[in-house]
Amino acid sequence: MISCFVGIDVSKATLDVGFWPELSKPFQLRNDPEGIAQLIACLNELEVERIVLEATGGYEKAVFKALRIADLDVVRVNPKRSHDYAQAIGQLAKTDRIDALMLAKFAQHLASPSKIEPSQARDELSELVKLRDQIVEHRDDDRRRIKQATSPVAITFFTEHIASLNAQIKALDKHLAQASKALNSEKAKHLASVKGVGLITTAKLMAYLPELGTLSGRKITALVGLAPYNKDSGSKSGPRKIEGGRYKVRGVIYMAAWVMIRHVPEFKTRYDALVARGKRPKVAVVACMRVLLVRLNAMLRDGTPWKDYKTQAPAA
């Protein structure tokens, strides 16, 4: 049996499936439980090396989860990566079926990420985290609007709406704590024990970075997008930069790092030393973020408690 790579172009209503090498012409199924079941039945009859689909605003979640449960090697990629690949191979035309074939070709060049088993508890936690972020965004929008409002009616409306949203956020925080414990109570307890890592940071790390505590420090920083990459060419040596990775996790680590820089002597010393050596503040805080992530990863991996150090030499 010839092995193949599979690309799936996902839309709200349909799944366009392509193969490389081209075992058959791309075909289309409905993006619903029946269509997904037909897709899995088809793929189980083949020797599939890897499946690639794009993140499409949530429309891909059901098929992605079903393929993982069926123990198929499936990778979800940022659409920018697949678009850049299409440009690189000169694929300028675009239809759903062409995209499916392009994704199948792309699949042969991708390495499989660390495999995390599907979890209904993690899906629920992720949904609650996303909902809380949306409500916080609405509240903050109203806080900006009320500063510009002059009508007493409008001001009253915004005030009451903000109070209502704050109540919803407070209620959601309780659900987040429960969902984090339901997913992994020991991991949640470990993370929450770290000064600067609160309930929301714990929930987001558990939802968006399930690999935390299972990889090496170098791999976890690369996965999040905090690993500095060389920018050298010939005799030119450019400054190293971070790139790619999970931006939602970086946002969480960024806020936690600032809390620790302000309140944990070790991190304040590290940050101040880097700035004193001429590093830009953003570079210094990224270095602190990297240290924080590596230490959280080691803490969970080794099952050891967090330890604050009185002195720590700053990273180069």
UniProtKB/TrEMBL annotation:
Biological process terms in GO annotation: DNA transposition
Pfam families with a match to the protein in the record: DEDD_Tnp_IS110 (PF01548), Transposase_20 (PF02371)
Domain Transposase IS116/IS110/IS902 C-terminal as annotated: residue spans: 189-271
Provenance organism: Pseudomonas soli
Keywords: Coiled coil
Entry coiled-coil feature ranges: 121-189
Protein name listed in UniProt: Transposase
Residue stretches making up the Transposase IS110-like N-terminal domain: 6-148
A Gene Ontology molecular function term of the record: transposase activity
Coiled coil found in the keyword field: yes
